[in-house]
Amino acid sequence: LLHPDRLALQCHPVDSRSQTNRKWIVSTRLVAVAAMWAFVGCAPSGMRTISSTPPFVAIRYEHRLAAGAAPIDAASLRQDFAQLTSLGFVAIWLDSGFPDRDEAAAEAAAAAGLTTIRSDERIDAYVEFGRLTPDAATPDALATVSRVAAAQIGGRPSILAMPPFLPDTVAGRAQALAAALQRLQPPQEMLLVGFDGDCGVASGTSNAIVATWPEPDEPPVGTLPAPTRQILLLTCESHSDSSPARAIAMQQDYYRGLAQGRTDGILVWRYRSWPGESNGIADATGHVSPAIAGATRTITKHAREWGPLLAGSRRIDAPGVELVSERLRCAVLQRKQRVVILVYNEDAERFARGTLRIPGTIDAVAVTRLVAQDTGQRHPRRGDALTIPLRLGPAEAILFEAH
After folding, report:
1. First CA to last CA across the chain, in angstroms?
2. How far apart are CA 86 and CA 236, in angstroms?
3. Please, how many CA atoms are within 13 Å of residue 351, restricted to the half-sphere of its CB?
4. H-type alpha helices, 65-201
5. Is residue 299 a contact partner of residue 250, using CB atoms and an 8 Å limit?
6. Is 298 in a helix, a strand, or coil?
C-alpha cells in the first residue's frame, strides 16, 4: 500500500481537465484515501481517532429565582432555552425543587434540543437523610424507581443530579446509590457537584460526571480512576459587577480549570441571576449582555471542539517544556500517548508575549511537531527542540497537540 501522505499528494490536479472534472477527481481520491486510512487503522494528524464521548457542556437552570417568587412561565422557558442553545450549551440541569413543574420544563428543553439533567427528591432524601419508602426500600430499588419516573418526564434519557456539595457524613449513602445507579442497564449517568475532596464518592465509576470549582493557585486536581469524568464548574461572578469584568473572569477560570486537569467538560452554575444580584450569565429577566454572551460562546466552543481531544487528559510534569513570559501560563496534559499543551494569558487587561520551547520528547513520547487546534497551523521541530513565539490577548488561550 502507498503511504497515506503520498496518496494525499496525488489529489492535486496535474493536467488541463475542466474545473468540474478536477473537483470530481480530487473528491474521489480523497474518499479513497479516507477509506484506506480506515482499513489500515491509521490517519494523519488532522484525522486522528480521539474520544467518542460527547463533550459535557451544560448549565444549571433554576425554575424559581428566590423563595416566594413566581415560577418562570412557559413562554419564558422556551425563550431562555433557545438562548442557551444559541450560546452553545448542549445540556441543562433543571433544578427547581418542584417536581410538578419538571415536565413542562423538560418538554421545552427537548424542543430546544437540550439534554436534561434532573434532580429527584427521593434520591435527595435518601442521600442527605437516609429516608427510604416502601416502594423503594433499598438503593437498587430506589435507582430503578427514579429511572422509571424520569422516563415519564420529557420522554428522553436524562442525567441524574445528586445533591450538590455533600458533607462527609453522607458519603457512605452517596457511594451506595452511585453503585446502584451503575448496576442499572444501561447505567444511569449521574452528576456530582462538589469540591475536589468530594470526588471519591464517584471514584472509578463509569457513570459519574464530577464537577468541581477551580481555585486560584490550586495544584492539579487529583486523578480519579478512569472512566470517571472530571468537568469544570464555572460561575459568572467577580469582584466587579461590570459585564466585561465578569466575562473576562469566566474565561480566566475556564483556562485555569483546564490547566488543573478538569478536561471533560463544563457546568455553568446559574443562568438567570437572582433579583438584585449578578450571579448568573443572564440578569433576572433572562437578558445576557454582549460581553458575557461573547465569553460564553468562546468557552462553549472550546469545550465542544477541544473536548474530544482533551477528554480524560490529566496534567503532568514535563521537564524540558519551557515558557518564557511574564503573563503567559502553560500546562501539559496527557492521556496515554496523546499529549496536548495549553498556553493561556492570565492577564485580564493586557496582551502578553512569550516563547514556548518544547524538547524532542515529552514523558517518553517523541515530538516532531505541534499543531494549533483552532487554526491547524503546524510547527515542525528543527534540531533538538521546537520553539514557538506567542502573542495572546487578555484571557486568551491556544491549545497545541504534540505529534
Report:
1. 23
2. 18
3. 5
4. 74-86, 102-111, 121-129, 139-151, 171-183
5. yes
6. helix
d(CA 258, CA 29) in angstroms, rounded, equals 39
Distance, CA of 275 to CA of 273 (rounded, Å)? 6
Question: Which residue is associated with the grid cell 524540558?
Answer: 320
For residue 20, what are the contacts with CB-CB under 8 A and spacing of at least 6? none
Contact by Cβ (8 Å): 346, 362: no
pTM (two decimals): 0.82
Say what the pLDDT of residue 101 is.
61
Q: Report the alpha-carbon distance of residue 311 to residue 230 in Å, rounded.
A: 9
The residues, any chain, with a CB within 8 Å of residue 146's CB and separated by 6 or more, are: 120, 122, 123, 136, 160, 188
pLDDT over threshold 50, residue 231: yes
Q: Could you tell me how many helices (H) and strands (E) the chain has, helices first? A: 9, 19
Mean pLDDT value across residues 166-187: 90
Q: How many CB atoms lie within 10 A of CB 73?
A: 10
Given a cut of 50, is residue 29 above it in pLDDT? no
Of residues 291, 170, 189, the one with CA closest to residue 231: 189
Q: Is the pLDDT of residue 384 over 50?
A: yes
**Strand partners of residue 191:** 161, 209
Amino acid at 133: T
| Cβ 193 vs Cβ 267: under 8 Å | yes
Reduced to 3 states, what is the DSSP secondary structure of residue 302?
Answer: helix
- The tally of CA atoms less than 13 A away on the side-chain side of residue 27 is 6
Residue matched to cell numbers 457542556:
57
